[in-house]
Amino acid sequence: MNPEEAADLLLRDLSSSSAGLSSIEAQRRLSQYGPNALRRRRGVRWPVELARQFTHPLALLLWLAAALLVIVGSLVVAAAVVLIIVLNAAFAFIQEVHAERAVEALAEYIPQRAKVLRDGEPREVDAAELVPGDIAIIEEGDRIAADIRLLAGAIEADMSTLTGESVPTLRSASILDVDVPVLRAHDLVFSGTNCTGGEARGVVFATGMSTELGRIAALSERVKQEPSPLERQVRRVAWLIAAVSVALALAFIPVATFGVHLSLINSLVFAAGLLAGMVPEGLLPVITLALAVAVRALASRGALVKRLSAVETLGSTDVICTDKTGTLTENRMRPIAVWTASGVHDLEADSGTTAAGELLPTLARIASACNNARLTPGEEPSGDPTEVAVLLAARALGAETDAAHREGKRRWQFHFDPELKLMSTIDRDGDRLVVHTKGAPEALLPHCTTLLGPQGRPVPLDAAHHDLITAQVNAFATNGLRVLALAERPLPAGIRPPHRRADAEHELCFVGLIAMLDPPRPEVAEAVARCRTAGIRVIVITGDHPLTAAAIARRVGISGDSPTTVSGEQLDRLTEPELARLLSSEPDIIFARASPETKLRIADALRGQGHVVAMTGDGVNDAPALRRADIGVAMGRTGTDVAREASTMVLTDDNFASIVVAVRAGRRIYDNVRKFIIYIFAHATPEVTPFLVFALGGGLVPLPLTILQLLAFDVGSETAPALALSRDPAEPGLMHRPPRPRSEGVIRGPMLVRAWLFLGVMVSALQMAGYFYVLSSAGWHPGAPVGEGTPLHHAYRQATTMTFLGMIAGQIGTAFAVRTQRASLRSVGVLSNRYLLWGIAAELFLAAVFVYAPPFQSLLGTAALPVGDLLLLVPYPFVVWGADEARRYLVRRRTARHG
Ligand code: ATP
């Protein structure tokens, strides 16, 4: 059986034909076979995930403390510690599920598309709507959406998702394999693999879970997310603190036993409780949540981030390498003018034909033939925007632009190759065949030997013509226009169309130029200005002409009046150290006529210098550079599936401004993470101080805070405000400071000083002042007994309650203080974070329950406080916050003075 017979048989089996299915039949099959999507096996793994939350190292430390407490018989405290473990595990679990959902949901923002024949016409449909029997059209850069048997054409397929082999393999309709494993059959391509080159048609024979990918998906599970550098750093610090807590707790035992003559058991209880209070177990889940919130917010603003950790990388991005077309510009091209040997013809003026008249029909014929765009009346033009503009020019010049007419004449096509910057077709014109070529002028000229002269006859192309053409190209390009050159060559009668590119694209007759305008996006200039103030360098790397690139870059403010432009050719001659030197010595640089390899080299050079690089790209060949950059940015609308897959971020609106929005969000989140790290760390000092006072008091001062009160404080005040801080608005000046160096850790010395020694010490002082005030107003003097049954016992309970509430009041002040690092709180709005207000309300409510509900009174040893004492607490938050406000003011003044 030959390949054609096999294909016919398959088509018959699938009740289809090479013209594809009708929409009605496709609809019917969709309800029969179900959507072409993979079902995830969800839910099964959650017990494992939950169990993990109970067994991570910090939780184990807490379990150890609980076990110790059980052994020494302090069951109530042990129960409280277990409660902390459970609450935290539940919280962390919810955050993780949340985060995972946020990332998974992103997939829905970029539904995969597929090209099929429906009702005999090529049409783009949602990949989920593919059904067996559909005729699919596969082109370079497509992700293949179903299992397909090729019927015509040949492609290169990257099958690494299925086979693990990353070398692309040839798949062709004309090779029929029998008796080989399916994955090796040369005429089959599979869902989930990518087409890296060529073009083919094929019939869909399996969709959804029946595909090979579906079979694998049914077996495998979710991909594990790597912990981000941020999480790793915080985990390290959490460990450090855990170690310090253990050391402190251990040191407390001898001091309490010998210094204050506490029983060993009591000292152990204290030590274990202290440990449980100080371990920052809530830190990691809050970070996960903060990143997930950012990912979700970004998605709604046009930037889909595929990994949580990318958010923090975005925050430290200091170089953005961007394409021009579509990213800086609107990608809506409009033909403005054409040029032929008899002069320029303005397409926008209503002047009708000019002297160039005779040559224009030839130019228009090439423009229409060497083209894949479609102009359907009443619909938006479809296809590559450059080609749409070329086709519009052809129509304006009176050529036939109907797609069916064009396809009827086409015998062969050489796709646009971004390396060669050329595209050619071979078409029938009357009884002869003609090669039609279009491309970048400098790329096309070397393949031309003649010029279509003003008389409509080819004349030899000499140096003067070269100069004339180049001058015209430069004149167009300087105005920011994109210029395409067109040429043709009639083939001698009776020969077969050449199937090798080099055989077609030579001895061409240069016919003319088409100049088109792709205006810059209006919002880009402002985004570029923001990059400037934020210390982010923007480098344009474009396939377009140097002058066009320079004109656009100037217009949006990326470069000054005389940027250094480096062409692909010049770049090829540079060695790596020379390129590195060029990049660091020339601040204002544009790479034009760049090939995808250029991007890779530039990404490498910049990363080698320690920069954090975001790089945009849209073609198959851009994939390596997208992977190599710190943040690969692909286009959601115009890019290929392959580029989208290789990237870390996809812009749903293809807009440069969205990259800047994402960088800002990354910075903001990083700041917010720092805020709640300070907030959570600031707990430590007031938590330890009461025990320190007790231990150093040598038995004269009764314990100012019971262990259970400490744990209650931990539960009540840690999580809600920290969560709220992760949503805090950005501090002014966020985009007015240089990017964070790659090497800078999330936790820095000054932050710890501020948390432990400034905010923490202040809260401790207030808390102890309240304690001693209540105690001494009841007539207590150092050494007076306060135990159960003594006259001072009730006052002692009230005093510990005062310590407890003092800590809470102080921490409220801390929560407001940490909201800004340098600016005054007024500049961000005192009440601008309503989550924080709710968090504090919840905290106050909980505190009231702990102090006033009788069961908690007896459990925690609290007692109701008179109104007078409560009023004393009111200034606490203001003192803490106010002091920090003053400190920040001084810092600002000092830096202002020192420049
Ligand atoms: P950017 O990299 O900024 O998106 P670009 O779109 O100009 O720039 P390419 O698509 O690689 O980059 O195009 C490079 C050059 O190739 C263009 O400047 C143009 O001269 C030529 N070109 C682009 N599209 C076609 C096409 N369909 N047919 C022929 N030549 C083309």
UniProtKB/TrEMBL annotation:
Topology class, membrane: Multi-pass membrane protein
Keywords recorded for this protein, A-Z: ATP-binding, Cell membrane, Membrane, Nucleotide-binding, Translocase, Transmembrane, Transmembrane helix
InterPro entries: ATPase_P-typ_cation-transptr_C, ATPase_P-typ_cation-transptr_N, ATPase_P-typ_cyto_dom_N, ATPase_P-typ_P_site, ATPase_P-typ_TM_dom_sf, ATPase_P-typ_transduc_dom_A_sf, ATPase_P-type_domA, Cation_transp_ATPase_P-type
Pfam families the UniProt entry points to: Cation_ATPase, Cation_ATPase_C, Cation_ATPase_N, E1-E2_ATPase
Membrane-spanning residues: 60-93, 237-262, 755-775, 795-814, 835-853, 859-883
Signal sequence segment: none
Major subcellular location class: membrane
Catalytic activity of the protein: ATP + H2O = ADP + phosphate + H(+)
Alphabetized SMART domains for the sequence: Cation_ATPase_N (SM00831)
Intracellular or extracellular location(s): Cell membrane
Residue span(s) of domain Cation-transporting P-type ATPase N-terminal: 3-74
Family per similarity comment: Belongs to the cation transport ATPase (P-type) (TC 3.A.3) family. Type IIA subfamily.
Protein name: Cation-transporting P-type ATPase
Species this chain originates from: Streptomyces silvisoli
